[in-house]
Amino acid sequence: MPQATDDQAGRAATALPLAAPRRRGRALAVFLSALAVLVATVGLAGPARAYEWNVLCTGYDACATAGYSNSGYKDHSSTSYWSQSTGHNCTNYVAYRLVTNGLPNKRPAQLSGNAYNWGTAFASQTDDAPAVGSVAWWGQSFSSTGHIAYVEKVVSADQILVSEDNWGGDFRWRSVTRSGGLWPAGFIHLKDMGPKVAAPASYPTYRPVAPTRIVDTRSSLGATGPLAAGSDTSILVSGKAGLPRTAIGAVVVNVTVVRPQAEGYLLAYPSGTSPAASSTVNFDPGAVVANQAVVGVGSDGRIRIKVSQATDVLVDVVGWYPSFGNLTTTTPTRILDTRYGQGAPAGRLQPGSRIDLTVTGSSVVPASGVDSVLLNVTAARPTKDGNLAVWPTGAAEPNSSSLNFSSGSSISGLVVAKVGSNGRVSIRTSAATDVIADVVGWYPSGADYLGLTPARLLDTRNGTGVAASGPVAAGGVVRLQVTGRGGVPSTGVKAVVLTLVVTGPQQPGHLIAYPSGSSRPTTSNLNFVAGQTIANTAVVTPSSDGYVDIYVYQSTQVVADVQGYLAS
């Protein structure tokens, strides 16, 4: 049974600007040999290129000529180390290097033959900080058997040099950068020969992408629908919509339910985990409802979508977080449910009243060092139309809403809430309703996300943020300044997190938020029906001068509140 495939080697070649599409056999060998000669001739041993998987040399002899050692493996490749297959094989090569460094030549009991197992087998010794002598591990990003390499040099927190030997391929050295998209899923520390070098906590990690639809069950894009009641569907996100094929920690998606057959809910959660007693979107029969979600990505590069009732589903990707980043995602975990007295006394929250909810110190959020938490907040069975506001406990109550709801309908929304005094956030309602809150992630202090007390940037009803009050016309665009306002700085902003609200539309329609001056995406942030007041969270990249454009398909009043921003 092969221990690792050479798929990684082939993909390395395709990342180079001059490479043709990958082909196996002689053509690939000729190309790689030519590349090795080129490397030796032009001296690629110097600073690494900006692109990912930069092959520095290929082959024992060519690498030696270029100054890249195989540390004697050429003469010992016929010997099995840690009971791995001999010859060109990533696991046997790495085991040889570890044995050479001083570990016994006896395979650890928890380790299987295939490379995909290594990171999970040594979970307590695996993190995102490279060190010379550590094992770079890619899990199953490129093949079912996985891949590993030996870290030869840590150039910086953002760049490493590795050596590897590939099943069915050849020995090589490569340079890998964090920003290139193929950074290892983790580094295994079994016999380090140098100190760890980790990115600082403030390392900017959010990666916005052009909003891209990856699932539309109406047209069988990504999945065929309608999804059946009770179904649980696997959705591939890695390699889609401009996302890399590995080391994705979480994906930011807009999930839309289209014309469900009955009242129910949808849950988006990480592949490889068990679905929680939670919901991402709540819906009524025949409705079109959207909610933004931050979902952890499984080791197989997938998320899962579970629906309680038959419905069509859309999934639009708007951004992602690397697995080495400073956002920690969790399986959705309920910390508040007033229906059953969890996190607060049982009973509906009454109009004008509030809950000070403790969010830190739980099983999924640490007791200290937390800037903000990601909550999926649900208003369940409200008695009247109204709204919920969420803000850091101890700060002044904002004149803004985090979630808008209609009488009798349950609705959910993502809230990125800054943590206030004693690790709490405050929740206020304008109408009687049960309130549910599920933690889906958190940002540490010093991260590139900075939570704010929500502040209103736009309200077309009274002219806030626009030249004149009044509904935005059908097909109209509001150009809204988001930097230098509401606590957002004037410069150094990668994205803003907004609560977008429409109220009083005359016809069914949708809203799209995007960088000012850029092409309008074909995906929507918010869908609405006539007379509805509805909100959704959006992570939007501003233009270079600090503006976002908000487009509405049908005439409506529009409100926008800022929750926080991501520093560049």
UniProtKB/TrEMBL annotation:
Keyword entries, A-Z: Membrane, Transmembrane, Transmembrane helix
Where does the sequence pass through the membrane?
27-48
Gene3D superfamilies given for it? endopeptidase domain like (from Nostoc punctiforme) (3.90.1720.10)
What are the Peptidase C51 domain coordinates in residue numbering? 65-189
Entry-linked InterPro entries:
CHAP_dom (IPR007921), Papain-like_cys_pep_sf (IPR038765)
Q: Which domain of life is it from?
A: Bacteria
Q: What is this protein called?
A: Peptidase C51 domain-containing protein
Q: Which organism is it from?
A: Terrabacter carboxydivorans
